[in-house]
Specification:
This protein is mainly α. It is about 75% helix and about 0% strand. It has helices spanning about 1-15, 20-40, 50-65, 75-100, 120-135, 140-150, 155-160, 165-185, 190-195, and strands at about 110, 115. Strands 1-2 form a two-stranded antiparallel sheet. The longest helix has 28 residues, at about 75-100.
């Protein structure tokens, strides 16, 4: 637990204006960020995987560019990192989809990251769209899904990051999963109609 305390102190120092503190945090959190990234990329085909190291580095760059970062603790840092990874993955999926519409279907690299398989791209974009709709209904539930699904945080870490009880996280996690399952199970025609209604 000494390392968790050290990370929290460095993050507090960074929030207090010490920009160099983040450079000390990165080596301490790198393995955990790698684990999170690997968990998000685990379902892809072997020949179409994103490089976990590149995803971690892109997330770190995104975090380092934040002007105002008031990370409360280690769990909060991982929660923000998971949000950054979600946005990076969605950006790459959108770029791949746009490139596919342009007729170029061969395996390409974007900033040295191999793009996702078509099915993975569609699933990620559908999840992102559903999460965006959930965010309009219940922002906290959408955050919980992002932290748990994209960030790999457990119930206690998510509770700590959001400053709520683990029981509240469990309840919201169950409700959010049920809502997302219902949304993602809709037929393509129903999804299209639902999008036009909102």
């Amino acid at each position: 637990m000494a390392e968790a305390k050290d990370i929290t102190e460095l993050l507090e120092s960074y929030a207090g204006g010490n920009r160099a503190a983040l450079d000390h945090v990165f080596p301490m959190v790198y393995d955990e960020l790698q684990r999170i990234a690997h968990g998000r990329l685990r379902g892809e085909r072997d020949d179409h995987t994103l490089d976990t190291g590149a995803l971690v580095h892109e997330a770190y760059i995104k975090l380092a560019r934040l002007d105002q970062a008031d990370w409360k603790n280690r769990s909060h840092f991982y929660a923000i990192a998971s949000t950054a990874m979600r946005h990076i993955l969605v950006d790459y999926a959108l770029a791949q989809k746009a490139q596919k519409r342009g007729g170029n279907r061969h395996k390409v690299r974007l900033d040295e990251i191999t793009v996702m398989a078509d099915e993975q791209t569609e699933n990620l974009l559908e999840l992102h769209e559903a999460l965006s709709r959930l965010e309009q209904l219940d922002e906290r539930q959408a955050q919980i899904v992002t932290y748990r699904f994209f960030g790999g945080l457990n119930i206690e870490e998510t509770a700590e990051a959001l400053s709520i009880s683990p029981a509240t996280v469990s309840r919201d996690w169950t409700m959010a999963r049920a809502w997302l399952h219902r949304e993602l199970s809709r037929s393509p025609e129903t999804k299209k109609s639902h999008r036009n209604d909102t």
